[in-house]
Amino acid sequence: RECSYCYIQGRLEDIESYHPELAEVLYALGRIADRESKSQLAADYYQRCLDQTPDHLYALLELGLLHIKNEAYEDAIELHQRVLDQDPFMSEAHISLARSHHAIGDKARAKQYLEAALGINTHNEEALYWRGLWQWQDDNDVDAAIETFEKGLDHPVHGDSALLLSGLARLHDKQLNEPDKAKTYYEKSLKVKLDNPTTFRLYVQLLEQHYQDIGEVQNQYERYLSLQPTDPTVYLAYADFLIKYFQNHEAAYAVLDNALNNGIESEALRRRFDQLDELIDTSGHGGSGGADSHSEHSTSVEDDEDDDDDNDFSGGVAAGDN
Questions:
Q1: Distances (CA, A) of 314 to 16, 222, 254, 303, 310
Q2: Cα separation of 103 and 109, whole Å?
Q3: In angstroms, rounded to a whole number, what is the distance separating the alpha carbons of residues 163 and 192?
Q4: Which DSSP string do the residues of 249-287 spell out, in sequence order?
């Protein structure tokens, strides 16, 4: 599958080099860059797509989501409103507008957009996730939040929802202090959909802090990065884990070096790599020369050190990829 994926990427890049004005090719390359956590490159492709086709719905949507990730909420609102101007029934745009308005403090309007999304699709898992989260964190209505999140369990059509299971896990972990239930829900969520870095980081945090199962935490990091090796926050967390529990700066350096060699963009990852490179070189253990080889990867991505960062929750397959 990976070889086929690389082949498709290569052919798209060939087409783009001869026909840089083709909006659909630019959008597809943006989606590939997004998939590889190359956020700035993805944003550049989406913007070039919009330069050619200003009303491209999915480029507007995806570029707006990158703005949300970077906390540029006003820019996201402008783009997602342009989506709704063309397609008032695109639930993804309603949800994104809800998130942006919530982030800037307009919670009443955020709920209006969220209810509009649920009016389009009563089982939209992302809309249900945000409703449950806000019932819990804004309204302090834990019972209502649990009822909302539990709509993601054993649905007769959709089955289990990884996103709603993650909401249940977080609530039992952070609010109700029920680690066993939280662990069960985290594991069910990751079984349904592994590639949610926030769910994963909260899960290993629970294993580390409550169960103190350091060996299992290491196993989980190794497994996750072997299957989903694109998220910089997980690489950073694993490097910190190796230093904290094993004082193994060389192994942490190797983890970050591997991420940079795979083209993963993150200023935070880049800074940590440089710090380790200098530390290892100063202490006489080698590691010299590694930092300069990755200078091309120093593009801007949000420094996500917060395990409760809700911007990681994107709610499933991106629009337009089907």
A1: 28, 23, 29, 17, 9
A2: 11
A3: 9
A4: HHHHHHHHHHHHHTT---HHHHHHHHHHHHHHHHTTS--
Closest among 99, 47, 37 to 73, alpha carbons compared: 99
Tens-digit pLDDT string for the chain (322 aa): 444 445 455 555 555 554 455 899 999 999 988 888 888 999 999 999 999 999 999 999 999 999 999 999 999 999 999 999 999 999 999 999 999 999 999 999 999 999 999 999 999 999 999 999 999 999 999 999 999 999 988 877 778 999 999 999 999 999 999 999 999 999 999 999 988 899 999 999 999 999 999 999 999 999 999 987 888 999 999 999 999 999 999 999 999 999 998 888 788 999 999 999 999 988 764 444 444 444 443 333 333 334 445 555 554 444 444 3
In the numeric block, which tokens belong to residue 247? 């004082």
Residue-wise DSSP of 129-170 = HHHHHHHHHTT--HHHHHHHHGGGSSBTTTB--HHHHHHHHH
Can you read off the two tokens belonging to residue 90?
Answer: 């695109």
- Tell me how far apart the alpha carbons of residues 67 and 104 are, in angstroms, rounded to a whole number: 13
